[in-house]
Amino acid sequence: MVDADGLSMWAVRQGEGPDVFLIAGLSDPAEAWQAQLDGLADRYRVTAFDNRGAGRTELSDEPLSVPMMADDAVALLRALGISSAHVAGFSGGSVIAQELALRHPDAVRSLVLMSTFARPDAYFRSMTGFWHWMVDQAPSERAMLEAFFLWVYTPRAHADGLVDRFVEETLAFPHPQSPEAFHRQLEAFEKHETLDRLAAITVPTLVLSGEIDIATPPRFGRAVAERIPRARFEILPGEAHQPFQEVPDVFNTRVDAFWREVDGR
């Protein structure tokens, strides 16, 4: 546990080298990044953490927002003595990363935005509206996870048993997210709006989208990349919302090459 400007936050750090700072998405604790903590620690000092309201980091009483979570992230960086880092975020974590780069640009060496968006559309709001209903109405936590994971993993992962493994791991996790925290995090992400501000991001940026991602389709990632000066946009063929978990070697190799290029400039 780390005292980050008065908020007690859970953080995990592995490896030595240039700092990499990983920001998880809706509901996910630091363990969502385990394949990156393990797979990149031979070249980087990798830090992952629990956002406010997820895992072991408490949910406070004040209204939750993406800017607040971005400020939490920079407070954690400072508490850990990290002046700047390669920042990578997925889904909700990617929008926190956008705000972090906008609000605290000196803390960000580069950006990797996986499964990202800058402005929710009608489809997105309908989808997240169903997620709110699903958390409250699902007959069990297992049923909720099985339904939710339809939105984020490939048919391949459902067929080969990977999703079943993730369900069991989530059910066994000793720090589950409360329904209240799920609703409040999701409401914060639904209000995210940076499309008209992204041009202010000046750090090297790589935007990645899964080809068959139905939660944040590639059109969202392309719109983000088009607004950030000199950002690169790439589609990962055959992948869905969370390729960093499904094909971690592919993801790790791509971001490593990007960070090596940035550090070599």
TrEMBL record:
InterPro entries: AB_hydrolase, AB_hydrolase_1, AB_hydrolase_fold. The keyword Hydrolase applies. Residues 20-243 form the AB hydrolase-1 domain. It comes from the Bacteria. One of its GO terms (molecular function) is hydrolase activity. Keywords: Hydrolase. The keyword Transcription regulation does not apply. This is Alpha/beta fold hydrolase. It comes from Prauserella oleivorans.
